[in-house]
Each structure stands twice: as structure tokens, then as C-alpha cells.
Design a protein that fits this description.
Blueprint (H helix, E strand, L loop, with lengths): L8 E4 L8 E3 L4 E3 L4 H7 L10 E3 L25 E3 L14 E5 L10 E3 L27 E3 L8 E5 L9
Parallel strand pairs: 6-7
Antiparallel strand pairs: 1-9, 2-9, 3-4, 5-8
Length: 166
């Protein structure tokens, strides 16, 4: 991959990192063996800065240009988000019914109807309704918070041209 700058990151559809490139998987590198790359990224992505520094970890992440309050190397966002009742839009579940007596035994293409005889009792309940018929919603369980994606490898150049400043 000619004409590459040290520290340059590219998307790569292969299953291996080419010569002089490494996957962006947050791995630690020795400063003594990669001093040129270290001079460019330092410990922005981790490492102790004495003997090691880390490459960016782009596994499961979407890269974003720095700015608008975000600094280079900063991580943000979550793959799953717990929902609260305040996040569910106000809505209703309208029940349709008829005051006419029922004429069918199947709910298909029908609505609840008035019974031919009384259907309610003031006596204490003796049976529990099947839990699969009515259940609570929400409960603060996390839901997936990921946009549609296509997985590719991100690679960083370890050997190439040293980028010069303007």
C-alpha cells in the first residue's frame, strides 16, 4: 500500500493486516520498536508512555472527526441503552367493543360484544389469568442502540511517509 502516511487509518476488506500495517484493535506496542508512530499519537489511545502505547480500538465503533466538543481519542456512546417510561411516546391502546350481544365464538374479524348473560362477579377471584395474555412492558431493560452496519477492518500504517505539517 504505497504512498501511506505513518498513523494513517484506512478501512480494509481483507482478513489480514498488510505489511507495515496493523489492525486498530487497541493493542499495546513497544515504543522502542515503533518510536515514529509513537511520536505522532503518543498515549492518546492508551499505554503507559514509558515502554508502551496503544493503537486505536475501532472494533464495534464508528469513527468520528474530532470537534464540536469531542477530542481526538475520546470514546462516547453505548451499544445498548436502558429505556425509561419517559422515553416511550405517549400513546393509547384503544379497545373496541359493541353493546350488541355476541354472535361469534372467534375473535377473528370481530370485536368484544355484550354477553348474553352476566360476565362479571363481585366474589373474590378464584383463578389467575394466564400470564402470557397480559404482561407488563418496559422494565428498564436495555435495547440495542446500533445503526445498520457493515463490518470491515480498520488498519493503521506503521511504516511509510512521516507526515509533515503545513
Amino acid at each position: 500500500m504505497s504512498d501511506s502516511y505513518i498513523g494513517e487509518i484506512r478501512m480494509f476488506g481483507g482478513t489480514f493486516a498488510p505489511l507495515d500495517w496493523a489492525f486498530c484493535q487497541g493493542q499495546l506496542l513497544d515504543i522502542s520498536q515503533n518510536d515514529v508512530l509513537y511520536s505522532l499519537i503518543g498515549t492518546t489511545y492508551g499505554g503507559d508512555g514509558v515502554t508502551t502505547f496503544a493503537l486505536p480500538d475501532l472494533r464495534g465503533r464508528v469513527p468520528m472527526h474530532q470537534g464540536n466538543g469531542y477530542t481526538i481519542g475520546q470514546k462516547a456512546g453505548m451499544e445498548t441503552v436502558p429505556m425509561t417510561g419517559d422515553q416511550v411516546a405517549a400513546h393509547t391502546h384503544t379497545v373496541r367493543a359493541s353493546t350488541s350481544p355476541g354472535t361469534q365464538n372467534s375473535p377473528a374479524n370481530a370485536v368484544w360484544a355484550a354477553p348474553a348473560t352476566a360476565r362479571y362477579s363481585t366474589n373474590p377471584p378464584s383463578l389467575a389469568m394466564n400470564s402470557s395474555l397480559v404482561s407488563g412492558g418496559g422494565g428498564g431493560q436495555p435495547h440495542e442502540n446500533m445503526m445498520p452496519f457493515l463490518a470491515l477492518n480498520f488498519i493503521i500504517c506503521l511504516g511509510g511517509y512521516y507526515p509533515t505539517r503545513d
